[in-house]
Amino acid sequence: MAIKVPSMELHRPAPLLSGGRGRTCLQKKVFLVQAKRLGGLEKASTRSRESEQPKKRAPLIRGTISPPLPVPGSIPRPPYVGTKDVPEIAKEIQMHDKESIVHMRAACELAARVLEYAGTLVKGYHGDTSKTFLCGEVDEASKRLVKVTEECLLRGISTCKHGTSFKKIGRRISEHAERHGLGVVECFVGHGVGRVFHSEPIIYHQRNNKPGQMVEGQTFTIEPILSMGSIDCDMWDDGWTAVTTDGSVAAQFEHTILITRTGAEILTKC
Asked: Which of 3, 170, 182, 221 is most buried, most CB within 10 Å of its CB?
């Protein structure tokens, strides 16, 4: 589940540095270089765009939200359920021993099974593990977007192991996205998960210089969102729905992983 709340996400203020444009005579592509400052961190990303822009589509319109379903009182509820309060992100690092890893594997496999079943019903994003489903007639550009987004997730996972810097995830994802002329949405992040649903570490999917290294036994999500256009988001007043500012199509994939001494185990698969 992507998180976008003041205490959990990467908020980008108005750009302090303007972008530049240039052309390469070899491949006849336009390169847009953007640099923005956030809390003393200056980030730069380069996105390659084909000279032929995809056809702009009409923006999404708001549908009708169904009423909440009843939940048995015996099921524990997080403190933010039924309120407009934003859930806080715990400072606890999700570390696991052999016993709790067994519980994490069972919980994450269940989440993956629920996702697959839900996907046969509503074709969208579901749960803490997420996947983009193709619904109806889908154009080739959108199919490619979905394919590359999943590839970005797997490439990000492939860099993970004990002792690896978290920033390598964003670098690997950005490199593959840019290679296909797609942008990485920056306003949503991955997060630690375990007994606490949202916790440290925060996982940035774009290039960044954030400190920190992975430790054997950690569990967290990687959940990149790629866009065919703008990488900026607008939040609807329902407090939940986010759309790209220019109405561009976006796709997301997510897994929960367990860091091991030699790599990463994907927990949310069945």
From this structure: 170
CA distances to 53, 71, 188, 232 from 68, rounded to whole Å, are 41, 9, 25, 30
Question: What's the pLDDT at 196?
Answer: 79
- Cβ atoms 259, 216 nearer than 8 A: yes
Terminal C-alpha separation, the chain: 18
- Residue 266 and residue 153 in contact, taking contact as beta carbons nearer than 8 Å: no
- The token pair at 76 is 């524990």
Sorted by sequence, the CB contacts under 8 Å of residue 228 that are 6+ apart come out as 54, 141, 142, 145, 182, 183, 248, 249, 250
Task: Indicate the residue type of 227.
Answer: S
Q: HEC states along 82-103?
A: CCCCCCCCECCCCECCHHHHHH
pLDDT tens for each residue of 73-131? 887 777 777 777 767 777 778 788 888 888 888 888 888 887 777 655 544 433 368 99
Query: 119-128 long-range CB contacts below 8 Å, 24 or more apart?
Result: 125/252, 127/1, 128/1, 128/193, 128/197, 128/221, 128/254, 128/256, 128/268
* pTM of this structure: 0.61
Whole-angstrom Cα distance, residue 184 to residue 207? 9
Residues 27 and 25: their CA atoms lie apart, in Å, by 6
Going 6 to 10 to 13 to 14, the CA torsion angle's sign is negative
